[in-house]
Amino acid sequence: MNKITWITICCVTFLAFVLWAQTNNEKKTMNPEKADTEQKKDVVIKTDDEWKKQLTAEQYRVLREAGTERPHGEEYQKFKKQEGGTYYCVGCGAELFSSEHKFDAHCGWPAFYDASDNDNLLLIRDLSHGMVRTEVQCAKCKGHLGHLFTGEGFATPKDQRYCINGVTLKFVPRSEVTPAEKEVKK
Which of 40, 43, 94, 137 could crosslink 120 through cysteines, CB 3.0-4.6 Å? Predict the structure, then answer.
């Protein structure tokens, strides 16, 4: 084996190791300034059994196990028909998105170009599956919502797309009572 081949093999092995190490690192919060905010919020902590009683099997798989619903599914079809209102976390009721920020990205999942309350979202560097992405979690219950993508060139006010699993969202039309208001009335 000549010297150049040996160096090439070493470099490729080293790069493969670096990629593997990055992929296996813990997810890193991309907005560390939220650490103080998180402690002030009413963080929702439940056991797996409590979550399983509250959520459907699909909601649990996506929200608690960081799954992904299939594209163009039933929840996406409902999303496309929904008009004015607000989207809340199905797990804890935190306000997440407004219908004012939704758009059709033709990707098969609900898409928003902005959040209605950025304090209710955690953005986490996600190196899984050999990709570099930004995971979006609910700041209140730490549920997996989807991913944030930037630089895709959509004709929206911001060059970003929150690609969110529809099963993680509870839609409340403008004319209805919000989850927080329901909680106060109890």
Answer: 94
- Indicate the domain borders of the chain: 27-185
131, 154, 139, 153: which is closest to 68 by C-alpha?
A: 131
Runs of H (alpha helix) within 25-56:
34-40, 48-54
pLDDT tens digits for 31-59?
544 444 444 458 899 999 999 999 999 99
Name the class of domain 27-185.
Answer: mainly beta
Q: Is 163 a catalytic residue?
A: yes
Three-state DSSP at 124 gives: strand
Give the max Cα distance, the chain.
Answer: 77
Taking a C-beta distance cutoff of 8 angstroms, is the pair 165, 72 a contact?
Answer: no
Model confidence over 85-100: pLDDT tens digits? 999 999 999 999 999 9
Residue in 92, 138, 141, 163 annotated catalytic? 163
